[in-house]
Amino acid sequence: MASLLLLQLLVHFSSTALHITSSPSQSASTGMASSDAACPSEVEIELFPFIRVYKNGSIERLMGTDTVPASLDANTGVASKDVTIDPATGLSVRLYLPPAAAAAGGAKKLPVLVYFHGGGFMVESAASPTYHRYLNALAARARALAVAVEYRRVPEHPLPAAYDDSWAALSWAVDACAAGPAGPEPWLAAHGDASRVFLAGDSAGANIAHNVALRAAAEGLPLQPGAAVAGVMLVHPYFWDPSNTMAPELEVRIRREWRFMCARPDAEVDDPRICPTSAGASARLAALSCVRVMVAVAGDDFLAAKGRAYHAALLASGWRGEAELVDTPGQGHVFHLLRPGTKAAAEMMDRVADFISRA
Q1: What's the CA gap between 203 and 239, in Å, rounded?
Q2: Catalytic site residue 34?
């Protein structure tokens, strides 16, 4: 069964057109690069359906390379724009401002949703058609100001670069909410409520959301009194857990992926960043400062058991918040992104939007 589920996932991913690409900011510091020229035939590492790395250092991304510009979305009325946070690293965000902002006229600020895209830390971006469409719809439905983070990706920038970028983006967004008109970002200054910040992501992005939430609990949101992470949403999270092992080929794969993501041959999957239920989990989870967490899993996703284990560990940890498990039977990994027009996707949108709206 697990092999069949992986095959289904690969079929979904493999339907994306093949591209060879890498942004200059991602390749400059390591000398690894991709281009539209034909790659050499000798492959050093292949993690299908995501990426190939060749022995000369060139990188071929096999999916998630298409992008769309920021715009005013005709279907939702949501306006979007791209903002560079750190030119040195290339860290940027795409902001989504819903029509609710204009309706409120600045009298009532909106919750701020900081969103981390999925893609195995290797592919996709904040500007991909999939995430652009999803965040336009979610910002309008939840009446939230969304901040989609364009973090640095593996392998040009091994972990923890994505975690560090995501923390920096959260810190920037919180500061911008309180900075006033002269601050770095007028949309956030005029409309963002730093006391109602939500962290969310799917797959690897859900992994990032969890780790950023832990850092926020440990260090606090910088500089701004009253700023708070009100909730965390982990959709089909990319986790590992020792209590429910996968089929042998999947266990081998996730270990190989984690070593690749960390660029360390000795990296182990009991690392708390990928295994939040590892030794000492209760103390870490109990320290979460948010009051609500939603964990969403899909019944036909081979990662579903990992998400359920996280939810159970959170409940058992002594954490004092409200933990919600959304378990969708008969659906695969990130079904709501791959098939947005389905009833199941609409129901998932309702659950996510309601989670934000209740703040």
Answers
A1: 8
A2: no
